[in-house]
Design brief:
Helices cover about 80% and strands about 0% of the residues. It has about 140 residues and is an all-alpha fold. The chain has one domain (about 1-135). The protein is elongated and about 55 Å long.
């Protein structure tokens, strides 16, 4: 139960931060459907690694074909959300998970690798790692 509460407390704010920052950056750049891309970034953030990759790639066709955006704005609209999602997914989220679940960020990233190689899915890797850690403590 504790693990589920920690996951909800950790994942929801970081996913919301990802969605809000993505939508905000795209709105500032003047990209059409920016709010939709922010909502999709929020929802896809629940799929580790691949969700962020999909969320980064979704607005790129819209950015490229929009004739109202100049080259610099197109580059900013494509690169800055990718940097935001990379930072949140690879630095902030493991740190928040680690502090709330009493695990190091490295153990969380290693759990992603182990559970991905065993089951080809990463969705529950931090939760399974925390659960196994809780059951092996004296």
């Amino acid at each position: 139960m504790y693990v589920c509460v920690c996951v909800c407390v950790c994942v929801i704010p970081t996913a919301l931060l990802t969605g809000v920052l993505t939508a905000g950056i795209l709105l500032i750049c003047g990209v059409k459907l920016a709010i939709m891309f922010g909502i999709l970034a929020f929802l896809l953030n629940y799929i580790p690694n691949f969700g962020s990759l999909i969320a980064m790639m979704l607005p790129i066709p819209i950015i490229l074909v929009d004739e109202n955006l100049n080259f610099n704005t197109k580059v900013i609209a494509a690169v800055v959300p990718a940097l935001v999602q990379g930072y949140i997914g690879n630095v902030l989220e493991p740190a928040v998970f680690g502090s709330s679940l009493n695990m190091t960020p490295l153990s969380i990233l290693m759990a992603l690798v182990v559970w991905m190689s065993l089951w080809c899915v990463q969705v529950l890797s931090a939760q399974l790692n925390a659960t196994s850690q809780a059951h092996t403590r004296p």
